[in-house]
Write a structure and sequence with these properties.
By secondary structure, the protein is of the alpha+beta class. Helices cover 24% and strands 40% of the residues. The protein folds into 2 domains: 1-32, no CATH class; 35-196, Protein Transport Mog1p, Chain A (3-Layer(aba) Sandwich). It contains 4 helices and 11 strands; from the N terminus they run H-H-E-E-E-E-E-H-E-E-E-E-E-H-E.
Length: 198
Amino acid sequence: MKAKHLPLILALLPALACGPGKTKEARGNAQAGFSEYSSEGGLFKAQVPSDWQSGSGAPGSGAAESSADFAGPTDLQGGRSWIAVTYYGPDHPRMTMAKFMELNSKMDPVLHLPGEVYGPVKDITVAGRAAKTFDRKTFDYVPPYAVHSIKIPVFERFTVVPGLKGGFYTIALHAPEDLADQLLPKYEKVVAGFSPAK
């Protein structure tokens, strides 16, 4: 055996040891990295990153509002990332889909942070429903409320999906800007696999 072939053979040994079926299965699992999540109360199902920590947010208005949060990686400066899915029922006392869009997709002339940037609102289809999506660039301060916080650029993407009887869902990505390109494909898979029940 010629010495020049040794590196190739050594590289192939793990695959040969596992056998073709196991290698393909392992590769598929690594590429997927998602598991099905069913929300409390059966409000929605979604494919979410398996290695992100999930939790239910505290309901904002009883049964009229509930959320599920999925915590992702943190960047080197301590900026946190997450995906949050929130359902607002038709009997919510303060929020409608139109009001959510008004408050979140446009720059507030009074409350906006200097340097915030809002992208255009786009029409998309989610779970067969006519939905809206938009991006926003803003900032986090790490640690929050500290005297000497670090200002971290943040990328956000929102997808807003109407309910069948007047309520609506929001699917939000919040990520430090340096992680956004890495996390956007995960977010888009959550949106693509989103299955609302209301």
